[in-house]
Structures are given as C-alpha cells and as structure tokens.
Amino acid sequence: MSTVPGDGLTVRLDLALLGFRLDVDLLLPGAGVTALFGPSGSGKTTCLRAIAGLEAGAAGQVRLGDRLWQDSARGFFVPVHRRPLGYVFQDAALFPHLSVRGNLDYGARRARGDGPALAFDAIVALLGLGPLLARRPSHLSGGERQRVGIARALLARPRLLLLDEPLASLDDARKREILPYLERLRDELAIPALYVSHSIDEVARLADHLVLLEHGAVVASGPLRATLARTDLPPAFLEHAGVVVEGHVVRQLQDDLLLLDIAGGQLLVPASGQAVGQVMRCRIATGDVSLAMAPARDTSIGNQLPVTVLQVVDASHPAMCLVQLDAGGTRLLAQVTRRAWKRLGLAPGASAWAQIKAVAGLG
Amino acid sequence: MSTVPGDGLTVRLDLALLGFRLDVDLLLPGAGVTALFGPSGSGKTTCLRAIAGLEAGAAGQVRLGDRLWQDSARGFFVPVHRRPLGYVFQDAALFPHLSVRGNLDYGARRARGDGPALAFDAIVALLGLGPLLARRPSHLSGGERQRVGIARALLARPRLLLLDEPLASLDDARKREILPYLERLRDELAIPALYVSHSIDEVARLADHLVLLEHGAVVASGPLRATLARTDLPPAFLEHAGVVVEGHVVRQLQDDLLLLDIAGGQLLVPASGQAVGQVMRCRIATGDVSLAMAPARDTSIGNQLPVTVLQVVDASHPAMCLVQLDAGGTRLLAQVTRRAWKRLGLAPGASAWAQIKAVAGLG
Amino acid sequence: SLRIAAAADLKFAMDDVLSEFRRSRPGARIDVAYGSSGQFKTQIQQGAPYDLFFSADIAFPRELHAAGLAASDVVPYAVGRIVLWSVRHDARGLTLRDLPRTEFNRIAIASTVHAPYGMRAEEALRAAGVWSAVEPRLVYGENIAQTAQFVQSGNASIGIIALSLALSPQLRAQGGYALISDSLHAPLEQGFIVTRRAARNPHAHAFAGHMQTPGARAIMARYGFELPARADRLR
Amino acid sequence: MFSPGDITAILLTLKLATVVTVLLILLGTPLAWWLARTRSWWKRPVAAVVALPLVLPPTVIGFYLLVAMGPDGPLGRVTETLGLGLLPFTFPGLVVASLIYSMPFVIQPLHTAFEAVGDPPLEAAATLGAGPVDRFFTVAVPLARPGFVTGAILGFAHTIGEFGVVLMIGGSIPGETRVVSVQIYDHVQAFDYARAHWLSGVLLVFAFVVLLALYAFQPTRARR
Amino acid sequence: MFSPGDITAILLTLKLATVVTVLLILLGTPLAWWLARTRSWWKRPVAAVVALPLVLPPTVIGFYLLVAMGPDGPLGRVTETLGLGLLPFTFPGLVVASLIYSMPFVIQPLHTAFEAVGDPPLEAAATLGAGPVDRFFTVAVPLARPGFVTGAILGFAHTIGEFGVVLMIGGSIPGETRVVSVQIYDHVQAFDYARAHWLSGVLLVFAFVVLLALYAFQPTRARR
Ligand SMILES: Nc1ncnc2c1ncn2[C@@H]1O[C@H](COP(=O)(O)OP(=O)(O)OP(=O)(O)O)[C@@H](O)[C@H]1O
Ligand SMILES: Nc1ncnc2c1ncn2[C@@H]1O[C@H](COP(=O)(O)OP(=O)(O)OP(=O)(O)O)[C@@H](O)[C@H]1O
Ligand code: MOO
Ligand SMILES: [Mg+2]
Ligand SMILES: [Mg+2]
Fold first, then answer.
1. Contact D120 B89 (CB under 8 A)
2. Residue A272 CA, ligand 3 centroid: distance in Å
3. Hey, are the CB atoms on C43 and D189 less than 8 Å from each other?
4. Residue by residue, what is the 3-state secondary structure of A98-117?
C-alpha cells in the first residue's frame, strides 16, 4: 500500500446529475482495496462510472499511477475502452445475446495484456460457473448473473478493478468462497480495486482504505484502520465497523489457533493460513468487546487485554454507548450498555480489562 | 401464526427449467413472515415466481387460506393479476416509461381492496422517495430502484407479500429504517409474507418461519425458533443464524433497558418500544455467547445464565465448535474455540454459565 | 355530370375539345381521366363509373360492346400516327432505316406487349427491316407518354411516339419529328363508346355528338389525328 | 399556383392517409401483438404472409383487388349482399386497398417493438393486478411507442405515395379517388412539369412537417 | 408454363432484390446507427428526410431520377465524367433507384432496433476493452438483429414488388432491367391473365419461402 501520488489513483471529479451532484477529490492507494461506503443514492455508482469514463459530463482529473486518464482542464480524455479496468456493474450488465461462456470470452479475448493473467478454468471453478457456461443470461438466477459479471471483469486482466456491490445478491456461503479469492487477488496481483459494498464485514475484510460518501461528497477517506478508529464518524457506521488490528504471528497453537503479537499484547485468533512471522489482520467488532474490572477466569473468552478508557460516545441505540479503549497502543472500540458503563463506574482515564469474545482473522 | 391448513399458504409445486428442477411441498403459516433461505441458484426466485403464477410450466397446487389459486390436477389456474399479491422483484422491474410516482400509482390504483390500505405519503416518507417522485427509473440509483419496488408492492394492498431480496442493495442504515416498518407490517397487517434474503440478520429479525432450499428441494421448513435450534443444519448456516428467544417484558429499567422473562431466567435487552407484559423477540448470535464455569463480576456483560451443555458440533472453522446449551428450557447456541472447550473441560451434561454479550431485540 | 376515360395520347386534343364543349354546357361537371386504354377496359368491366371511353385501340371498346357494356355503337373517332422523335438529333430527315446507326444507342418505343403505339412501332420496325438490328437497343415505355419522356430527358437518343404528342404544346418546341409511313403498320384505329351506365346521361350522348362536329374534328386534326369519315360506324 | 383539382386532391389524400394510418394502427396492433407473444407454430408463416403483398407490383395487386371486389368477385358479392354496393371506384374501396397494401409497413415495426417490450414489465404489471387488456394498454403500448411512431410514419408516407393500387381500384375520380399521387402522375404524364414540381414540392414539405411531428413522439434515449 | 422471358425476369429480379437488400443493409446501418446514437439537433430532420421519398408516387420519383441521371442531370454529369456512362436503362441504374426508394424500409427498423439496444451493454463492452467499432459489431449489431431481419424483409420484398420506379428508370429491357414485377404487369395489361396468375403465384411462393427463411433468424423471446 502506498500513497505516493505518482503511484496511486487520483480522482478529482465534479459531475452534476438530475438533483444530484458528485464532487470528490480523492487520492487513493495504487494497490489494495479501497472500499466505497455510503448510503443508497450517495453517489457510489456515479463515482465508479465517472472513474471508468462512462460519465461524459464529469469534469476533473483521473490518474492511475503515471498514466493520466482524464484531465478536462486540458481537454484530455482516454475513452473507456482504453482504460485498462475491470468493471463489475451493480446489475451485472451481461450481454444478453451471448452465452455465459461468450460473456467470459468477450472480456478474455480483449484482455489488454498488461494486467495479470488469470486462468479461465480457475475462475470458472471458483465462481461455480461450470454448469452454466452454455446458458444465456436470461436463464440465470440473480446471483448467478452477478458471478458471471465478476468472472468477466477478472478475465479482462484489468489494472484497476471497479466493483459495484459485487456480492450483494450472493449468500453467505458463496461470499465466503469468493472473498478469500478476492483477497488473494488483492495481495498477489497488486492491482488496486475500488469496492462498493453495504456490508461492513466485507469492507473490513477486504479493504485497506476506506472512503465514506454522503450526498455526493467525501465524509472520510483514509487507511482502513485509522478511519475505523475515528469516533467522529456516524455511530451507525462505527457500531457496524468495529476496529481492525494488525499483528505478527508468533506461534501456531494446536486447535487451529494462532498467537498474534499486537501493540499492547497478544491475541488468540482462528488460523487462516498464515505462517509464523507473517502479518495478519483481524477485525474486532464493537459488539464482541466487553469490559470488566478484573480478568475473568474459567471462561471461554480467550482474549483479555488491559486497557485504558479514552472516551465514550453515543451509539445509535440510546441504551448503548461506544467506548474507545487504548490497549497499550492498539485502539479498540467496545459497545456496552449505558447501565454497565455506570455500574462499572467507568470514566475516561479509567483502567479496565477488555474481554474479546471473537476475533475474525481477515487473512 | 397458525398452521391450520385452511388458514395457511399451501405450496406444492413441481417445475422443470433448463438444468434445474424445483420440487417443493410446503405448508406455510397464514400470517407472519416466512424466510426463504438458500444458496444462489437454489430456486428461491423460481419458487416465488411459481407461487405468483408467473411460471406457466409449474404443476401442482397453490392455496392461500380458503382460496385455491392453482390446482393443475384439476386444470385450475387463477391468473397472476387475480392473485392478490405484492411482488418485489429481485431486480425491481420498474416500469421504465413511468415516473416513480407513476410506478407507485400503478399499483395503488389497482389495489384489490381486500388487503390492508397503507397511506401513500407514509410509505413514500418511510422509503425516502419524496424527492424522487418525478424521476424516471433510469435516473435512479440501484438502491433507490429497489425502494420504489417495495413501495409499489405495498401500495397494491396485497394479501400475500412475495419479497425477493428486497433489501439486498440497501445500506445498513436504510435497512434499519425499513426493517421495523416491515416488522410492523407483519404484526399489524397480519398478511403472510415470503421473504427471500441472504442476510441471516434480516431473517432472524423478521421471520416467524424458515424454509431452507437447496438445489430446488426443501432442506428444512419449520417455525423460526425450532428450526434455528436444530444442530443438524449446515454449520455455516447455524453459525450465522444464532438462536431466537421469546419472552415477556416484566420491567422497564432506566438506561433504556428492558427486563425480559424467558424460560429459565431473565434477560436484559435494549428497549425497542415494547410495554410491560408484551412479548418480545430477541436474537442471540452464536458469537455473542461465551461460556464460563462461574458467574463473572465487574464485567460489562449484563446477562449470565446457568446452562447445561447438550451437545457439541463442528463449526465451519476447525478452530471453533458450536455448543448447544439448555438454559432451563431456552436453547442457546455458543460458538467457542475448541481450545476453550478443552480448557474448561466441558462435555455434554456439564453445567456452566452462558455469558451473553449482546442480545438484539427484534421487536 | 360527365366522366370521361381517355387514352393518354388524347390528353392535349381532348383538353381542347372539352374546353369548347364546356362552353356550350355551363354548369355541367365534366371530368376526364387520362390513362392506359387497357386499364380502362378492365375497370369498366368491373363497373367503373365512366360515361364515355375513348380508347387508343378500337379493339377495347369493341370488346365492351360485345359484352353488352356499351350504350352506343363503337364510334371510330381518329386514326393515330407514329413518328420518329428526338431532342438530341434532328429527326426531321430521318427514316426508320437510319436507326441502326450507332449514334442511336438507345431507342425508346412503347410497350410492344400492351400499348397500341408500341405494337405499331414494332410492326413498322419489322416492315422497315431494321427490327433485329435495333432490338438490342430498344427501351420500352409503359405507355406512350413515358416513352416520350425517355427521349425528352435525353436518356434515349431517339424514340417512336404518337404524332399527337410530338405536336403537343409541351413537346413541339423541343426537337423535331419525322412521320412514319402508315403503310409500314396496321392502322391505329381509335374508337369510343358511351358506356351502359351512361345510357340515360344526356351529357354523354351530347358529347358523343360533339365529337362529330367540325370544330372538334378540326382540333383532332390539328393534333395529327387522321379522321375517319363522318358518322362512319364500324361494327 | 394550384388548380382547384390540385387542392381537392390534396385534401382527399390527407383524408385517405389519415384514415388508413389510424385504421392500420387499430387493426395492425392486435395482429402485431399476437405475432410478438404467441409461441404458436403459425407465428412465422403468418408474419411472412403479412409481408407478402409487398412482392407483387402495386398495379397487379390493384388488379386482383379490382376483380375480387368487382360484381363477380368474392368480396364484391359479400359487399353487395350486405347492401354496401361495390367498393371499387369509391373512397371506402381506396381505404380497403390501401390497408392491404400498407399493412406490412405498420405490422412489422409494431411486431418488433412489442417483442422488445419483454416479459418483466408485463409480469410486474400482472402482479400489481393489471389484467391482460389493462397491461397491454398501460405497459405494452407505451413501451412499444417507437414502433407505433415508425409504423405510423411508414404507413402514412406509403399511403400518400402509393398510386399503382389506387389508380387501379380508384379510377381517378376527382374528389372521390383522385389523390395527389395520381394528380402528380397525371401532370408528369401530360408533360406539365411545372405543376408536377409544385405539387411534389408542397407534398414533400407537408409530409416533412407531419413526419417531424410524428418523430416528436419518439422518446429520447435514457442515460443508463 | 413459363416463357424464357419469365425465367430471365425471375433471375434478374432475384439478383436485383439481393443486391439492393445487401447494399441497403450495408449503407443503411451506419446511417441508422448515427440516427439512434446522436444527440444532434439534426437527428429528427434527417430521420424525416429519409422517409420522405415514400410520399412521392414511384413513377414520379422515377421521373425525377430519370432526369437527374440523364445526360443533362447533375447525377448523369457525374457518372459520365467518371466514365461510368449513364445509369438509366442499366442494371446499376436500377440498383441505384431501388436503393433510394427502398431505403426508408430498411433505415426505420434498424433505427428503432439500435435505439432499443440501450447503453448498458455497450458500456459493459467498453469497460472490457472493446472500441467503438468492435462494440458496434459485437454488441450493437447482434442485439439489433430483429431490426436487421425486419429491414431485410421489407427491403427485399419492396424491391421485388416496386415497379413504378423500375419501369421509369429501367426501360424494361429483357435480361437487363425487365424484372418480374414489370413482366407480370405486362401480362396483366395484355390481358394474359393465365400467365399473370402463374407468375404471381410463383413469385408469392418464392417470396414466402425467402421471408420464412429470414424470419428464422428472428430470435425467440427470452423467458425472463
Ligand atoms: N429460464 C431460467 N430463468 C432463471 N433461472 C433458470 C432458468 N432456467 C434455468 N434456471 C436455473 O434455475 C435455478 C434456480 O434459479 P432461481 O432464480 O430460482 O435461483 P435463486 O435461488 O433465486 O438464486 P439467486 O439467489 O442467485 O437469485 C438456477 O440454477 C438457474 O440457473
Ligand atoms: N441519470 C441518473 N442515473 C442515476 N442516478 C441519477 C441520475 N440522475 C440523478 N441521479 C441520482 O444520483 C444519485 C447517486 O446515484 P448513484 O447511483 O451514484 O448512487 P449509489 O450511491 O450507487 O446508490 P445505491 O447504493 O442505491 O446504488 C442518486 O440520488 C440518483 O437519484
Ligand atoms: O394510350 Mo396507351 O394505352 O399508353 O398506348
Ligand atoms: Mg449504486
Ligand atoms: Mg433469485
């Protein structure tokens, strides 16, 4: 992940639609996944379309690394088909006159060559498209269509991936199959991706960078961890987001657990393929952190860290509050009842123990 | 909720599509929400379409209460437009030639009169469609389109709601706005709804009845609580599902909490509008239950119940297992690490304390 | 009122005859349709509301008469003549025997299948012994007016058209013509009938009579029609 | 500029083209709808038969119609029995002939447009309680608007311009069957080019305006 | 049954209809595409002008073409300067005239069909690296197939059947410009009804087969 201008994705766009204006100025990393998050109608799709060059009315600049794609001040505009990108449309946008295979081949045959090559068969297998290859899109289910759209974009060997809610109509099982694959893409291919999603789980898992859009404007933009630890964001967002921590694997334990060194302590995490010494990312949901005044014994809770209370903010339900904690350098966010907050006599500066019920390894 | 045949929705259908066969025999309650759950391509949409009468090739019987809709053995078939239903299509299927208002009016004007009447303005406000009324569907965002589709179906005053992933492309905030409304619909209107969703949260929150589809066949069908407490279902499903408990509100506490009487004890739950004496439903996710050998003190965890371990089954991650617990009549499901399971020396029949980090009130 | 169906070659002569006749019957509504004689015959057989039928070929009114569709005898009113006509060349000194010359690369005649003027043109070309020489260069007009247009537009270097057209105000100014000897082809006998539906139409009988008046005959002659003997009735 | 005959012919033509276009849309719509929706074996043969009159020369069609509608023809017998008299050489006869000849130009675009409507909006309408007729008028017809515009344009223009059939079946009776096309044709045949040009020019300008107005009903393309 | 003249005419007609249909598709496609995609102010006027030749009687169009292509006409001067000679009374002349007259029947359905394609599939193709020409041929054309079928059917049938223009510009030269429509017309005019019926019958049967074959290219409706 890098934020060197010459290496990243610069998006400075201004576009007026009917009753809506998109006005963004973003400098995004040139590798890894940037999540685009925001309520319905906030301009996520419009932003992706403008970056792709599909919005003729968009003024501004788009630059990927050292390649300028658009600079309306200079009248410069690289047409869509010359921008080496892969676009997964919100509604799949498959070619109705081609079979599934025809749709996939369409992208593969025009692959612009400089993006990473992916094996046709591997992608077909991953997305479970084997039995569907001969079908027409009109004979597919909603989720099947979306999977074909993902495969088609990947096979085009893009240098930038634009994903508009690619997993929205997939079941959890299928999501869990595809997510690791997208993670691998992120890590191995080192191509940047812009990922629109309504699912914080997906975002927390995949994204390195987070952009929050509202009413066509950028509310927040920054590295995932830093952004998630901010308490000035809308509570509904914070609650669902949780925090993301990173650490080094120090030991592999039996029972498929890993011991992770993080700033301020150690965590036990379900293994997900990392070797000792590797960096691992985990998400800790606000709801999975409880507070106690002393470490508990004889509990199935495997992780307990001494923490200092930093501040408390409102959660979206009045019975609850969000407590920001510092665990020796690692920021945590706990959602507890106001009742418990009072009963435990907590206040900023107080010491306590954070009991972490679940830590999700994010690969 | 009733399962008297004369009152419920009988669906006995057999339909062959290209490379796919739907063969279901369901008796669903005549009120409340039935969730249709299953992987992509499992036949959820096809099943909804067949119930609506949109699949001409479907053989079998459909009956809503005392009204027969279809009986192919007798050559009886009520055409779609005479079935008083509201259908929210997976892809919205708005009329491209009508404005948003035109789309809404289309359903409202043809409202079949026997379903419950809903105020136009209320629905428009709820779904945030006010500023969009004059727009064409082609000028809407993905989520906006879906919201129009929901409003249109509701305004048709249906006696049966068929909802095909109505919230799939909506953000969490918007979902949280709409869900209580759907809940109110469920409770007040007493019309049955079939709800396709990939989100267990939505399902657990809304559904009274659960149908699991796989490869066009019914894997499980039954009341939500009973079905969620089954441990013979796919672990990926169980993990995400958690359990649902019901109890009576016995007291309103300060800090917006309610005290709930359930079989085997009491629970503290964030209030969501219930009065003392009312029944309230809560979902307890598997990840929110931890086990301890003794009650903990000085912790933010507000709910601790003495339990007996019933059985343990594999979770989808090898480091984890699912433990079924009996809390004096209430079944709970805890997801704990195998390491903790061993460390605490747990086994079927053992006594322990269930610490419940979060209980989500479902209204 | 009076409705007349008249062969296309009569266009100019008939217009003049009619303007005279109209003067004698103010108030009467008189319409003429000019067209293909054969088509008129078919239409009258199917009940077309024409009171008088002036055919370019006397055979058609005869057939109608034989079928009982006439309220009068068949009256021959003119004999048509054909001419060589060109706007590109001076046709005045030419004869049919000049046609094989290469400068006449396209030669227009009316349809030899159904247009009376075309049939006579073919007969004349054969009689002059040039048919096989010119046949590859022939282009056929659907009727005689179209044939004249082929020539007039310069697309055909020369053509065989009706004398009545060559003498018409519109074409007289352009090019010149050479009369083709009527010994080379059967006579273009033209005849008319009063149709059965006009049996009791006084205007129809009046106009039939008017055609025999010296004034009408003079007009016909001016447009190059040869006139049959007065009141000569053929059966 | 214009003779009274020209003006009569223009008015007559307008009347004919309007009546024929309206009737063609009314009659052609159900047939085109059937063609677009049916799964019957007959679909393609019927569609081909609709286009078939096109391949015969207009005058020949006119001839066959003349014979069929004449006193000894099957159609003529029917109209006479019904007390309608004979159709040839009357305005209604012209209308019938033009209907037959211009039919394919209206049916074809409607057929294509109805096919392009697709199932989803019709299904959505059905679930909202719209019966077959209701959804036909409130969904299929509005969505097939481009086809209606094209069909009206082709049908209207072709009825104005066609004259082979009209000449044969109409017999060029002023005020009754002598339409502008016949009038222009007569001017050309009489070498009266000035009047032919004038009349053609007026016809073209007028038709241009009508066509432009029809195109104004063509919806513009949506952005996404 | 048939005279050698009939057979020559049939073959000539086939050749003409085929050449004209192919050329119309080739020439009409870019124009229809422009009409469907442009946001230019000219769009509707141009679309109206394309349909305009329809409103003039075929023989009158033929007359104007005859003059324009003649030695003193603007087109004739061009063809003569180019050493092509004059077009009237030649097969190429017939082709040019038929192109002009049948053009709207091909342009209109193509225009409608291209408009129905819509942006999404073209945008998807662009993001997959397909340039304008590429996506035109691989996306727009296949999706507009119904329009091509309709256009081909109307253009083909109309070229076979139209004879006013052909008569005027062709001069009815056997083997060169005397097509079946003229031949049938001649038979009818010569009261040779038996041969007219025969030839019409054969033409109808043949055209029916061709049209049916064209319809076989019409995609069937998708289920959802
Ligand atoms: N004409 C058809 N239309 C839709 N699906 C078809 C058709 N023919 C066969 N199928 C198959 O039927 C199966 C069931 O499709 P259905 O749309 O009911 O799935 P679903 O459960 O709604 O999936 P999703 O969650 O992806 O929307 C799919 O495997 C699909 O490929
Ligand atoms: N032609 C248009 N097409 C799409 N959206 C338009 C158009 N004109 C105006 N808008 C508005 O632009 C806003 C942004 O739309 P956009 O599709 O980018 O939203 P989004 O963030 O992707 O929402 P969703 O999550 O619902 O897909 C919406 O409020 C929409 O109504
Ligand atoms: O008047 Mo004719 O029938 O064209 O020779
Ligand atoms: Mg969107
Ligand atoms: Mg589905």
1. yes
2. 97
3. no
4. CCHHHHHHHHHHCCCCCCCC
Contact between D53 and D96 (Cβ < 8 Å): no
B274: nearest Cα among B288, B258, B298: B258
User: How many Å lie between the alpha carbon of C124 and the closest alpha carbon of chain E?
Assistant: 19
**CA distances from residue A7 to A30, A74, A191, A193, E159 in whole angstroms, order as listed:** 5, 21, 11, 14, 62
Q: Tell me the C-alpha distance between D218 and D222, whole Å.
A: 12
CATH number given to A242-361: 2.40.50.100
Distance CA A45, CA A58 (A): 13
Neighbours of A, requiring at least 3 CB pairs below 8 Å, are B, E
Contact, C2 vs C207, CB < 8 A? yes
* Residue E204 belongs to domain with CATH number: 1.10.3720.10
Nearest CB to E172 within list C36, C42, C111: C111
The residue ranges of every structural domain in chain A are 9-228, 242-361
For ligand 3, atom 5, the nearest C-alpha belongs to C115
CB B198 within 8 A of CB B192: no
Range of the domain at D100: 4-223
Chains near C (3 or more Cβ pairs under 8 Å): D, E
For residue C145, give the ligand 3 atom closest to its CA: 4
**Cβ–Cβ < 8 Å for C50, C23:** no
pLDDT score of E222 more than 70:
no
Contacts of residue C50 in chain D, CB cutoff 8 Å? Answer: 171
Strand partners, A275: none
Homologous superfamily assigned to A9-228? P-loop containing nucleotide triphosphate hydrolases (3.40.50.300)
Q: Does C105 touch chain E (CB under 8 A)?
A: no
Distance CA D20, CA D157 (A): 11
Question: Residues C70-84: pLDDT tens digits?
Answer: 999 999 999 999 999
Neighbouring-strand partners of residue A336: A321
Asked if B138 and D138 come within 8 Å (Cβ–Cβ), the reply is no
CA triple B207-B212-B216, angle to 5 deg: 135
Pocket lining: C2 vs ligand 3, CB cutoff 6 Å: no
Going by their DSSP bridges, the two strands B330-337 and B320-327 should be labelled as antiparallel
Q: How much of chain E exceeds pLDDT 70, in percent?
A: 96
Please choose, from the candidates A335, A236, A353, A341, the residue with its C-alpha nearest in 3D space to the C-alpha of residue A284. A335
Contacts of D189 (CB under 8 A, 6+ apart): C8, C11, C34, C143, C145, C146
**What pTM does this model have?**
0.84
For A126, C173, D37, D114, E74, the CA distances from E221, given in Å and listed in that order, are: 31, 64, 8, 11, 48
Nearest to D121 by CA among D148, D142, D146: D142
ipTM over 0.85: no
Contact list in B for residue A165 (CB cut-off 8 A) is 142, 169
For residue E136, how many C-alpha atoms fall within 13 Å in the half-sphere facing its CB? 10
C115 and C36 Cβ atoms separated by less than 8 Å:
yes
Distance, CA of C214 to CA of C230 (rounded, Å)? 10
Looking at residue B1, its pLDDT comes to: 38
**Beta bridge pairs of residue B209:** B34, B223
Burial class, C28, CB count within 10 angstroms (exposed 0-12 / middle 13-18 / buried 19+): middle
Please say whether the beta carbons of A301 and A355 come within 8 A: yes
DSSP string, B37-50: E--TTSSHHHHHHH
Q: Rounded to an integer, what is the distance from CA C84 to the centroid of its chain?
A: 15
Across the interface, do B317 and A270 touch by the CB < 8 Å criterion?
Answer: yes
Number of folded domains in chain D?
1
pLDDT digits (tens, 9 = 90+) for A174-232: 776 677 667 766 776 677 889 898 777 777 777 889 898 989 999 889 888 778 777 67
Looking only at the bridges linking them, the beta strands covering B243-253 and B279-284 are antiparallel
